[in-house]
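Worked example 3 (structure in, sequence out).
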């Protein structure tokens, strides 16, 4: 995975959908929620891809971002 490529949060064990319509996406590990995917928030804040991505069991990583 390249330094500037974000992992697919939908495949991460820490990604959750919230009940809050204003902030529907969340990262359980980092403890934040927002309108964009958590990996995008991490990239915007640090300039690096998310270091905490952990693939959900039974899924394949793949090369796509979506």
């Amino acid at each position: 995975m390249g330094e500037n490529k974000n992992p697919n949060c939908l495949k991460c064990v820490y990604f959750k959908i919230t009940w809050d319509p204003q902030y529907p996406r969340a990262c359980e590990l980092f403890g934040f929620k927002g309108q964009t995917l958590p990996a995008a928030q991490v990239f915007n804040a640090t300039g690096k891809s998310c270091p905490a991505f952990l693939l959900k069991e039974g899924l394949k990583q793949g090369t796509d971002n979506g």
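Notes: Strands lie at 15-17, 25-27, 32-34. The chain has a mean pLDDT of 88.
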